[in-house]
Design a protein that fits this description.
about 300 residues, alpha/beta, two-stranded antiparallel sheet, Inosine-uridine Nucleoside N-ribohydrolase, Chain A, eight-stranded mixed β-sheet
């Protein structure tokens, strides 16, 4: 239970940075986490669910419900990212397969709708995975946008290059049809946290060394080893980007980012650019803005927030 009553659902495909996002959300003690929903993405649905349970066990928060969702994208084949997150999704950092915590009953999209109806106008969704669960929830409940306080999603890139293809960020590439449904659903407050800002939030070995809990420090160091190596190979910097944790950071401290309202869409029918997020900066399409795009971030302040939360 949080100190503030800020009700959230965290939707994850728990790989390395989703796990860090869960740690931040739990350890901040400022969010009332109604549940964590899982989806196929970086790893299979079962692996993502198991990983989520492992992380909650790691921080002694097994009372938080974990509800499994979609086992694959709406129409496409699954695209796992084992090169980035390792075969188990956590960089091999929690190898013991025995997990006492199990997923709760239910189906993630239905859980999202149920909680939104239970707390109308109070619930924020923080999505750090392909948007399949939310798209399915919208199909079930088209009025969902009127029930939610905010949706914050980590996904897309609007000015820079992609991280899975030259143009596409992973979450939007993995299920672009789902992303398109979400973007066109009519949310009053839909915040996009993309690679343009997350690439500025870097975690290096010096920062990991500042973690005071030896269990958490060892976990973060081990889990990010493969992640840092991959990031260094692709970008020449020995660090890893805190992609998913920044989405949680925006919920915790909205002042960390500068947001601007634009019309945003996702390419779903291209030979080269499927999953590309297209932001109409100059309003050339003449459409009404549908997304708050994060354009700037106070990366230093966010890193301090992240470290201080994990040290609390």
């Amino acid at each position: 239970m949080s100190e503030t009553g800020n009700r959230i659902i965290l939707d994850v495909d728990t790989g390395i940075d989703d796990a860090l996002a869960i740690l931040l959300a739990v350890k901040s003690r400022k969010l009332d986490i109604l549940g964590i929903t899982t989806v196929c993405g970086n790893v299979s649905l079962q692996q993502a669910t198991d990983n989520t349970c492992k992380i909650l066990e790691l921080v002694g928060s097994t009372s938080i419900p974990v509800i499994a969702g979609a086992a694959g994208p709406l129409t496409r084949k699954s695209h796992y990212e084992h090169r980035v997150h390792g075969q188990d999704g956590l960089g091999g950092a929690l190898p013991d397969p025995a997990v006492s915590k199990q997923a709760d009953e239910g189906f993630a999209p239905e859980f999202i709708v149920e909680q939104a109806k239970l707390y109308p106008g109070e619930l924020t969704l923080i999505m750090t995975a392909p948007l399949t669960n939310l798209a399915l929830a919208l199909m079930k409940c088209p009025e969902l946008p009127t029930l939610l306080k905010e949706v914050i999603f980590m996904g897309g890139v609007v000015r820079g290059h992609g991280n899975v293809t030259p143009t596409a960020e992973y979450n939007t590439y993995a299920d672009p049809e789902a992303a398109r449904i979400v973007l066109h659903a009519g949310f009053e407050k839909l915040t996009q946290v993309g690679l343009d800002v997350t690439r500025q939030t870097l975690l290096n070995e010096e920062a990991i060394g500042r973690l005071t809990d030896p269990v958490l420090r060892d976990y973060v160091a081990q889990s990010t080893e493969i992640y840092i190596k991959r990031y260094e190979e692709m970008n020449g910097i020995r660090a890893c980007a805190l992609h998913d944790p920044l989405a949680v950071g925006v919920a915790l401290a909205p002042e960390l980012v500068g947001r601007q309202s634009y019309y945003v869409d996702v390419e779903t029918a291209s030979r080269l650019c499927d999953g590309q997020m297209v932001c109409d900066f100059q309003n050339r399409l003449g459409e009404q803005p549908n997304t708050l795009v994060c354009e700037t971030v106070d990366a230093e302040a966010f890193l301090e927030l992240f470290i201080n939360a994990l040290n609390s």
